[in-house]
Amino acid sequence: MKIGIGLPNHVRDVDASTIPAYAARAEQAGFATLGTIGRIAYPGVMDTVALAAAAGATSTIGLLSNVLLATVWPPVLLAKEVASIDGVSGGRLALGVGIGQRPDDFVADGLGPRGLGRRIDADLEIYRSVWDGEPVGGGDNGAVPLTARRVPMIFGGRSPASYDRMAKWGDGYIAPAVPPAYLAENFDTARRTWKDAGRDGSPRLIAINYFAFDDLDKGRAGVADYYGTAPAEYRDIVVGSIAAGAGAARAAVQAFADLGVDELVFQPSTADPNGIEKLAAAVL
């Protein structure tokens, strides 16, 4: 099982200038992937910007939006931005796709929080056409260079439609940031839907687990703040699942490995970069 680490772009009032150095330290520490979590109506750094910064500051580590709220974007613009990040990174990006649910994240005119299933189904067609170099905007020009590829997509969500989109369009499934005891059914459903769709092999299965080493109270408060608009029961489950220290981080690795997960991304609960090496020493 691969072990990744998240960038702190989601931490309230994070100093954006620290993200490139954080990414470089994570690569040097030996993590397999850098992940982002993204919202619009929250004082952090846009996940696409964080991934672009990470792409420029690293050379080998994988990049993953974990997950990006795709429906808040005009689809051609997002497809071009994603292809651009992937190109800058040398083909290291996987696009984690979610449809969102918090109404305040939908700030673009004409892209409100309604009809999200229909919207993402249409948007996925557009992403593919943009990445294939088809013309955009009614003219003759495509939006991406000829070297662009179809960026791998990993789907989040728990509805039947989310699993169906994964099997049709995706390369894998990202589970919500809850303890492994809650997730066996999610991963089993992903595998079953993949097989039922006639896909070869197995989907790439990714899990998320928050972590904290030096200031657990601060980490808990930060995660609770980020999930402040979520139902209280779900928020408490996420906060309660934070891996506090080396022993808890190692236990999370074992628990997710037992579920057959391909990759576990430890998401920071604070922006303290010293957690990078401490987590690496515990789990790599």
Tell me the CATH superfamily: Luciferase-like domain
Q: Report the principal-axis shape.
A: globular
Rounded Rg: 18 Å
- Count of DSSP E strands? 10
Sheet with most strands: strand arrangement: 1-2-3-5-6-7-8-10
Order of helices and strands: EHEHEEHEHEHEHEHHEHEH
Total individual domains: 1
Count of alpha and pi helical runs: 10
Top-tier CATH class: Alpha Beta
CATH fold label: TIM Barrel
Gross CATH architecture: Alpha-Beta Barrel
Structural class category: alpha/beta
Q: Beta-sheet strand percentage?
A: 15-25%
Fraction of helical residues: 40-55%
Q: What is the makeup of the main sheet?
A: 8 strands, parallel, barrel
**Parts with pLDDT < 50 across at least 5 consecutive residues:** none
Could you give the distance between the termini? Answer: 10 Å
InterPro entries: Luciferase-like_dom (IPR011251), Luciferase-like_sf (IPR036661), SsuD_RutA_monooxygenase (IPR050172)
Keywords: Flavoprotein, FMN, Monooxygenase, Oxidoreductase
Domain Luciferase-like: 1-246
Protein name: Luciferase-like monooxygenase
